[in-house]
Amino acid sequence: MTGGSSTGANDTYLSGLDNEVEILFFPAGSVLAKAGERNTGLFYVIEGFLDILLPEPDHTPAFEKHAAPKDRKDRSPKPLFTVKPGGIAGYLSSLCNTASYVDIKAKTDTYVGFLPSHALDRLLEKRPIVLLTLAKRLISLLSPLDTL
Hints:
Elements: H1 3-13, E1 22-26, E2 31-33, E3 41-47, E4 50-54, H2 62-65, E5 78-83, E6 88-89, H3 91-96, E7 103-106, E8 110-116, H4 117-126, H5 129-141
Antiparallel strand pairs: 1-8, 2-7, 3-6, 3-8, 4-5, 4-7
């Protein structure tokens, strides 16, 4: 077996993805995905930082709807965490095939590798082990239950 023949297995493993991953630039303050959007995809941070924000629910009490704008509480999104270079954003909506629960916003000028959800779906059909790998990585990022 030569070195070239051993990499052939990897080529077929990821075949079709070579034209799917896009390298994108987002200036600071850009919104990559909004809560409620479906089928966004995975964002791999190459350089820069992404903020993951939980938008405030729009449950405005009736008495506040009639108040002057200056009297209303500031309804800015709640920061959850920051994705650093080497990290991935968009896990949950991509793995569960649901609408995003969070906003993804560029904290700084950011370069990302973007894998659209339709390409991820095709990869998961061919190689279900990828789903397990992504799920394990997501679980490793979550806080242990004993610290809640």
